[in-house]
Design goal:
The protein has three domains: 216 residues, HUPs (Rossmann fold, 3-Layer(aba) Sandwich); 77 residues, Tyrosyl-Transfer RNA Synthetase; 77 residues, Structural Genomics Hypothetical 15.5 Kd Protein In mrcA-pckA Intergenic Region, Chain A, CATH 3.10.290.10. The protein is built from 18 helices and 13 strands.
């Protein structure tokens, strides 16, 4: 365990949005060092979707920092709370998931989380272990400790109530169930995004009711997506998935705005605050080109998710595309069955959609009209173009500067 209180506090506070309460944090860290007793640091994830992106890794990276400092990381997979659905930031009731979908998502979440966390030092538990056995009398006991007025202090509930938008009683149970997670594992610290502030404070309150030392709540900022405006989200298309190929990740990092680069350094790399400060100063003083700093950021993120060798290959691939105007060494193949094609020709829009370079016919048409599609070195300008099979076998179709598919006719 790191024995310096100053170093622990510096590392823990790096990139945080808020600490509730800061004086308690320093006190329990000091006690932990003195007694050589690791703290229980809790992070709960509801498996409501199969994949995670860099935005999710912000809190995972903070949990990893606690691991590196010698504390105990407890990752709670909310397989039971996912049945309710976290109402944070929601204006309507979340759609309910089947238990099969939740279990499948949970398996994926755990595997992807270990791209950030040290699996050997992580305790993974499902909250169904203690929530499922609860009887009605137990649930009534929990709900009796909170008032409706307290629930309506929550911003999203307040807005829905004032806007005469329905709130299901089940949704009130979510923060109570999440708070009970903290009681069940006797958490010392709980991590979450800024949208989780209410839930984290509920954990503190319920621990007091159960005569436990209340946890310190640490909230992390929401990571801005690659567009530099909205929070990172798959639905907005401004995300970087943790399982995307390294070459893809490198290109996306290089596309972010210079103004959000330091936030990425703080939130999704393991550099200490001193090193990040030096990078920021060098950019502000113009002694270092921001492009070089961004390249380093891309390498660090890929090293964290994959390996140093993968980062080197990804950077080389990026240079081949943007400096040498070459196609990358590894290109995903798109298999086109010849038996399924009439008259030996295939519509270019179909190729773009089936190869996943476009999500729909409409998007494919827009890409072509914008001049963003090439076949080999020739730009495609007609969205109604029919491609002759014998001329496109083993050819590379390209979207924009970074997306390629090799067409294989079978």
């Amino acid at each position: 365990m790191e024995k310096s209180l100053k170093k622990q506090m510096e590392e823990i506070l790096k990139g945080t949005e808020d600490v509730l309460l800061a004086e308690e944090l320093e006190s329990i860290i000091s006690y932990s060092i003195k007694e050589n007793k690791p703290l229980k640091v809790k992070l709960g994830l509801d498996p409501t979707a199969p994949d995670i992106h860099l935005g999710h890794t912000v809190v995972l990276s903070k949990l990893r920092q606690f691991q590196d400092l010698g504390h105990k990381a407890i990752l709670i997979i909310g397989d039971y709370t996912a049945r309710i659905g976290d109402p944070s930031g929601r204006s309507t009731l979340r759609p309910r998931l089947s238990s099969e979908a939740i279990d499948k998502n949970a398996e994926t979440y755990t595997k992807q989380a270990f791209k950030i966390l040290d699996s050997k030092k992580t305790e993974v538990v499902k909250n169904s272990e203690w929530l499922k056995p609860l009887k009605l009398k137990d649930i009534l006991n929990l709900t009796s400790r909170f008032t409706v007025a307290r629930m309506l202090e929550r911003d999203d509930f307040k807005k829905r109530f004032q806007g005469n938008i329905s709130i299901a009683i089940m949704e009130f149970l979510y923060p109570i169930m999440q708070a009970y997670d903290s009681v069940a594992i006797k958490a010392d610290i709980e991590l979450g995004g800024t949208d989780q502030r209410f839930n984290l404070l509920m954990g503190r309150e319920l621990q007091k009711e159960f005569k436990q030392r209340p946890q310190v709540a640490i909230t992390m900022p929401i990571l801005v997506g690659t567009d530099g405006v909205e929070k990172m989200s798959k639905s907005l298309g401004n995300y970087i998935g943790v399982t995307e190929p390294p070459e893809e990740i490198f290109g996306k990092i290089m596309s972010i705005q210079d103004g959000i680069m330091i936030d990425y350094y703080k939130l999704v790399t393991r550099l200490n605050i001193t090193e990040i400060g030096e990078i920021e100063d060098s950019i502000n003083s113009k002694s270092v080109n921001p492009v070089l700093a961004k390249r380093r950021l891309a390498r660090l993120i890929i090293e964290g998710l994959y390996s140093r060798d993968d980062a080197v290959v990804a950077e080389k691939s990026f240079d081949n595309i943007f400096k040498e105007k070459l196609a990358p060494d590894k290109i995903e193949e798109y298999i086109l069955a010849q038996d399924d094609i009439k008259e030996g020709k295939v519509w270019v829009v179909r190729v773009l959609v089936e190869s996943r370079l476009a999500s729909s016919n409409g998007e494919a048409r827009r890409l072509i009209s914008q001049g963003a599609v090439k076949l080999g070195s020739k730009k495609i300008e007609d969205p109604n173009l029919e491609l002759e099979l014998e001329k496109i076998n083993n050819k590379i179709i390209q979207k924009g500067k970074r997306y390629f598919r090799k067409i294989i006719i079978k």
